[in-house]
Design goal:
Layout (H helix, E strand, L loop, with lengths): L2 H13 L7 H22 L2 H26 L7 H18 L4 H23 L4 H21 L1 H4 L5 E2 L3 H4 L8 H22 L1 H11 L1 H6 L4 H27 L1 E2 L6 H14 L6 H16 L7 H15 L4 H13 L11 H4 L14 E12 L2 E12 L3 E5 L6 H9 L6 E6 L2 E2 L5 H5 L3 E3 L12 H10 L7 H14 L9 H14 L4 E5 L7 H16 L4 E5 L3 H7 L2 E6 L2 E6 L1 H5 L2 H4 L9
Parallel strand pairs: 5-10, 5-11, 8-9, 9-10
Antiparallel strand pairs: 1-2, 3-4, 3-6, 6-7, 11-12
Helix pairs in contact: 1-21, 2-3, 2-9, 3-9, 3-12, 3-13, 3-14, 4-5, 4-12, 5-12, 9-10, 9-12, 10-12, 13-14, 13-15, 14-15, 20-21, 20-22
Length: 596
């Protein structure tokens, strides 16, 4: 079959598959729901519901950024109410007490919310998950007390009243400028969340949240991702605070107590973590139900929040929208056995160059490398040289230090003594992300595959991590993979197929040097043959340097140019496969000889 026919068939198959992600439909439905609650009360002339849904839409926008921070960036923050309060209060101080122009006061409020986001971002560089949640929760508890204590600037418990009749003046159909702004802004927040999620920045954030090790091996700095996420969320929530001021026309410490932060957090959980529609449905349930439908029990709001969240988690473990989405996704997910992800079908798109053999240039060199974990010596004074274009097998029993050595070369751990060079540059003290940017690709013993992404997006992480321009070969390969797997899920892939996805990700990165950590584990005989073919192609036709940690000795002896044997952290022998076959120091380690 010609390449054009193959591509057409693949594209036709991709169009026939159900959509992997429902983010776009959810966002569009969200626009409609927000427009209904934002505009209809004004058109009907019901001032009570106008005011109510203005507050609801402001909280929806804040919950959208909470959702982004919670799921996409993996940051458990209970302090988003503080950021909204900073935006509202600082704007009120300068506009209501010091008579600044509203726009200038709003900029000051936005700056204050951003500064608050910075204060949250710095702890995020050191602490994670619910430890970070406790740090931000403490800020939410202290904030109203701080407002009352600083009464010289904040007017204390009396609060600040403001008047902005121009924003409330009706233009047409009962709509005012404030109504338009408050209805449109949650739509903008949803669009921002969607755009970030579809971007390289969004993918990098999610990888950093789900697997910091994998992120660093792809050149991503998890701390920087967390920092950026907090700033984006702080700015977005700060705008919510600015809109809150003209909507309510009054701010006081009681309006920004800890339960406000709980509202945003519970809205995400109840609506569905990570779902675009989640914050909308969540706010409707968590805020409208206790504060309006059950207004006579307003003093029990916190109890009602907790009960609603508990009932939702019990009945809908993934939240209301999340549970519906999981049901939809399960209907569309099907398995194809070993055909789900095959490498050999795509090698035809790679032309490569002339057949090459390993050169004399040493591109990876370890000099007296020693790595200790407490009193345990994992790597013991290792000397190693790997030539350009070489397939270098690294073998040994479990616990012999093979993976520990790869982790050192990847920058995931540091040597206690000795040094190593990559392409002639000393990389001993470089961070993992900087080493990755030197043209290093890496796979792991447990494949780092992300079910939150489509199969294609799992592969595209390699393209995102690429440094420099890509080759025409890899561009053709990427096009073929996208056409085939853009709407496929990685969730049903077997362990062996997940390994192949990780291998292909390293190929798409176009790394000069690739570290494979037991890539053949879990592969069938056919998959092993395809993998061996791929490794030979990478080394012989594309000039890649391969370091292969593997227990499948048949595979290693079949494809390796050089084999290094490790035992208890030391290198006991190194040489060609033929030399290793006849080395008595090696033979005694493997029952049945070299192919045990």
């Amino acid at each position: 079959m010609a390449m054009s026919e193959t591509m057409a068939a693949r594209e036709g198959g991709a169009r026939g598959k159900p959509r992997f992600s429902s983010d776009l439909p959810q966002m569009l439905i969200g626009f409609v729901l927000i427009a209904i609650t934002g505009f209809v009360p004004s058109i009907l002339g019901n001032s009570y519901w106008v005011h109510t849904f203005q507050l609801v839409n402001i909280y929806i926008a804040a919950s959208v950024f909470q959702n982004f921070l919670f799921v996409d960036a993996g940051q458990k923050s209970f302090g988003q109410g503080v950021l909204l309060g900073l935006g509202a209060y600082v704007t009120a101080i300068f506009f209501g007490l010091h008579d600044w122009p509203f726009l200038l006061a709003a900029l000051a409020g936005l700056g204050a919310a951003t500064a608050g986001g910075l204060l949250f971002a710095f702890p995020a560089l050191r602490v994670q998950y619910f430890h970070l949640g406790f740090v931000t929760l403490s800020a939410a508890i202290v904030f109203p007390q701080l407002l009352m204590s600083l009464d010289k600037w904040t007017n204390g418990i009396n609060g600040i009243s403001v008047s902005m009749p121009g924003l409330h003046q009706e233009w047409f159909l009962g709509l005012s400028p404030l109504t338009l702004m408050i209805a449109v802004y949650p739509m903008i927040a949803l669009a921002i969340h969607y755009a970030i999620r579809r971007s390289r920045l969004g993918r990098d954030m999610r990888v950093a949240a789900l697997s910091p090790e994998a992120a660093r091996s792809l050149g991503i700095r998890p701390g920087v991702m967390r920092f950026i996420a907090f700033i984006i969320a702080a700015i977005g929530t700060g705008v919510c605070g600015i809109l809150y001021l003209p909507a309510v026309s009054f701010v006081s410490p009681q309006g920004f107590n800890v339960e406000l932060s709980f509202v945003f957090f519970f809205a995400v959980v109840v609506g569905g973590r990570g779902q675009m529609l989640g914050p909308i449905i969540g706010i409707w349930i968590v805020f409208i139900l206790p504060n309006i439908a059950l207004a006579q029990f307003v003093e029990y709001r916190l109890l009602i929040y907790g009960l609603l969240t508990l009932l939702t988690v019990i009945l809908f473990p993934d939240g209301i929208v999340g549970s519906i989405e999981r049901w939809r996704a399960r209907r569309g997910v099907t398995g194809r056995g070993e055909q789900a992800f095959r490498v050999d079908r795509f090698l035809e798109t790679l032309e490569g160059g002339r057949e090459t053999r390993p050169g004399d240039e040493v591109v990876v060199e370890v000099r007296g490398g020693t790595k200790k974990f407490g009193e345990v010596v994992a790597v013991d004074a290792v000397d190693l040289k790997v030539r350009r274009g070489e397939i270098h097998g690294l073998i040994g029993a479990n616990g012999s230090g093979k993976t520990s050595l790869l982790n050192v070369l990847s920058g995931l751990s540091r040597l206690n003594a000795g040094s190593f060079l990559i392409k002639g540059e000393d990389a001993t003290r470089r961070s993992a992300d900087r080493i990755a940017d030197m043209g290093i690709g890496r796979t792991f013993q447990t494949p780092r595959i992300f079910p939150q992404f489509s199969l294609w997006d799992n592969l595209r992480l390699g393209i995102d991590a690429r440094v420099g321009d890509g080759s025409a070969d890899i561009a053709r390969l990427a096009d073929a993979l996208e056409a085939e797997f853009a709407q496929d899920s990685a969730e049903l892939l077997s362990h062996g197929q997940r390994r192949l996805v990780e291998v292909m990700r390293a190929v798409l990165k176009e790394a000069d040097i690739i570290f494979f950590d037991e890539p053949a584990a879990g592969l069938s005989q056919g998959e092993r043959a395809n993998f061996a073919k791929l490794v030979r192609f990478l080394a012989r036709r594309m000039g890649k340097t391969i370091i292969l940690v593997e227990h499948d000795l048949e595979l290693v002896w079949d494809i390796a140019d050089t084999i290094t044997v490790m035992e208890q952290g030391r290198v006991v022998a190194s040489g060609s496969p033929e030399a290793m076959s006849n080395d008595p120091a090696v033979q005694h380690m493997f029952v049945g000889g070299r192919r045990a």
